[in-house]
Each structure stands twice: as structure tokens, then as C-alpha cells.
Write a structure and sequence with these properties.
The chain contains no helices and 11 strands. With 127 residues, the protein is an all-beta fold. The protein is globular and about 45 Å long.
């Protein structure tokens, strides 16, 4: 069973940086996607970024392009989300999620594509 554990959340001032970590285990195939999602109170879960272990393709939501970077360290089975120039609107619970790549293709920003989820980590950006 795939297990995902997030860490690295916290409180930071606007303009600051945080790096989230997603420690992954239990993959039985090497073609999977790991994504980061976030959900603020009263809002829908939003796809932030994702990376494919197979072809390395990366997705970023428009709202985070140029500020967030997704980094994979497969030797450590960890995917990071480096978040710079944080804004108060980035405040949310951030989740790591994963699924095995399907032949029919996928939408990396769609939470319904993902079969495995971590417990989430809170990010709060103060103004």
C-alpha cells in the first residue's frame, strides 16, 4: 500500500519561503505521479503541482508558477515543494497525493485522479 507523509508546514510572513516534503513508500511500479494539492476553509481542493516519475513531466497551477518548484529525490523517495514569495492567499492545508499512471492519460490538477493521499500539513502566511 502506498503511504505518503507530509511535513514542513508552518507559519511564515508574506514574502517568505517554506519547503514541504512528501515522503513516499509502498510503490510497486515505477510509473506514478505525485502531486501537491491545497485546500483553504470553504474552498475546493486545488491542484498546485505534480511530477511524473516516468517522463518527468511537471504541472504547476497558474497561481503558483514562478514561485513554487516541485523537486523529486527518488533516491530518498521524497518529493519536495519549494514555496517562495508566499502570499496570504497561499494559506491552506497542503496535501501530497499519488496515483499510478493510466494508459488513457490523466489530468494532473484533478484530485479525482489520485488514489493515495497524505494527512496534510498546514501552511499559514501572515500579511
Amino acid at each position: 500500500e502506498v503511504q505518503l507523509v507530509e511535513s514542513g508546514g508552518g507559519l511564515v510572513q508574506a514574502g517568505g519561503s517554506l519547503r514541504l516534503s512528501c515522503a513516499a513508500s509502498g510503490f510497486t511500479r515505477d510509473d506514478y505521479v505525485i502531486g501537491w494539492f491545497r485546500q483553504a476553509p470553504g474552498k475546493e481542493r486545488e491542484g498546485v503541482s505534480s511530477i511524473s516519475s516516468g517522463d518527468g513531466s511537471i504541472y504547476y497551477a497558474y497561481s503558483v508558477r514562478g514561485r513554487f518548484t516541485i523537486i523529486s529525490d527518488y533516491a530518498k523517495n521524497t518529493v519536495y515543494l519549494q514555496m517562495n514569495s508566499l502570499k496570504p492567499e497561499d494559506s491552506a492545508v497542503y496535501y501530497c497525493a499519488a496515483f499510478y499512471v493510466r494508459p488513457s492519460g490523466y489530468e494532473p490538477h484533478n484530485p479525482y485522479e489520485y488514489d493515495y493521499w497524505g494527512q496534510g500539513t498546514q501552511v499559514t502566511v501572515s500579511s
